[in-house]
């Protein structure tokens, strides 16, 4: 039987959806929650640190911190095709963190992007066949997106 666990980090990150019919076309930000869902078998090897776990939560936290939090916290995510936003952010120079992506930074697209950043770092330990099953992104307390391969 497969078990799943989840671990998350939060960031304060800006974006815009340039073609949006309403206010999301403006530069704005959110308190995002980035949540990895990992599936696999519980480690049964006796005496190891991960016995009884899929993976240590602190190991997932380290991965999320390095590949999501430290990249996106207090940054602005902008599509490479959003010339107006890129020009506006360029005026801020090195005092501003801009992450340029190849897609419109909606919650749905960011969930897929985050999955792709984290997935290579979820590795099987002690033969328990781990895999990143999904990545969930909360843009607001009422709005979530999930990407599953």
Keywords:
single chain; 149 residues; alpha/beta; Tetrahydropterin Synthase, Chain A; six-stranded mixed β-sheet; 6 strands; 34% strand; elongated
Quick description:
This protein has 149 residues and is α/β, with parallel strands linked by helices. Helix content is 24%, strand content 34%.
Report what the structure shows:
The protein has helices at 57-72, 83-90, 107-118, and strands spanning 3-15, 28-40, 75-79, 98-101, 131-140, 143-147. It is of the alpha/beta class. The chain has one domain: Tetrahydropterin Synthase, Chain A (2-Layer Sandwich), CATH 3.30.479.10. The chain has a 6-stranded mixed β-sheet with strand order 4-3-1-2-5-6. The longest helix has 16 residues, at 57-72.
Q: Low-confidence runs (pLDDT<50, min 5 residues)?
A: none
β-strand percent reads: 25-35%
User: Which class of secondary structure composition applies to the elements?
Assistant: alpha/beta
Helix residue percentage: 10-25%
- Compute the number of helices: 3
Domain count: the total is: 1
CATH fourth-tier homologous superfamily: 6-pyruvoyl tetrahydropterin synthase/QueD
Gyration radius (Cα, Å) is 17 Å
Q: Average pLDDT across residues?
A: 94
Shape: elongated
CATH topology call: Tetrahydropterin Synthase, Chain A
What is the name of the CATH class?
A: Alpha Beta
What is the β-strand count? 6
**What strand line-up does the widest sheet have?**
4-3-1-2-5-6
* SSE sequence, one letter per element: EEHEHEHEE
Largest sheet: 6 strands, mixed
CATH architecture: 2-Layer Sandwich
Give the CA-CA distance, first to last residue.
Answer: 20 Å
């Amino acid at each position: 039987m497969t078990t799943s666990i989840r671990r998350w980090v939060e960031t304060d990150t800006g974006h815009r959806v340039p073609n949006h019919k309403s206010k999301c076309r403006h530069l704005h930000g959110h308190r995002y929650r980035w949540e990895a869902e990992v599936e696999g078998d519980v480690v049964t090897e006796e005496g190891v640190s991960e016995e009884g776990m899929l993976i240590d939560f602190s190991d997932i936290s380290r991965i999320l911190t390095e590949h999501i939090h430290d990249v996106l916290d207090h940054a602005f995510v902008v599509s490479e095709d959003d010339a107006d936003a890129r020009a506006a952010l360029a005026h801020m120079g090195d005092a501003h963190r801009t992450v340029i992506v190849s897609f419109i930074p909606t919650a749905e697209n960011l969930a897929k992007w985050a999955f792709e950043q984290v997935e290579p770092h979820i590795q099987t330990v002690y033969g328990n066949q781990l895999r990143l099953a999904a990545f969930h992104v909360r843009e607001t307390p009422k709005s979530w997106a999930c990407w599953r391969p």
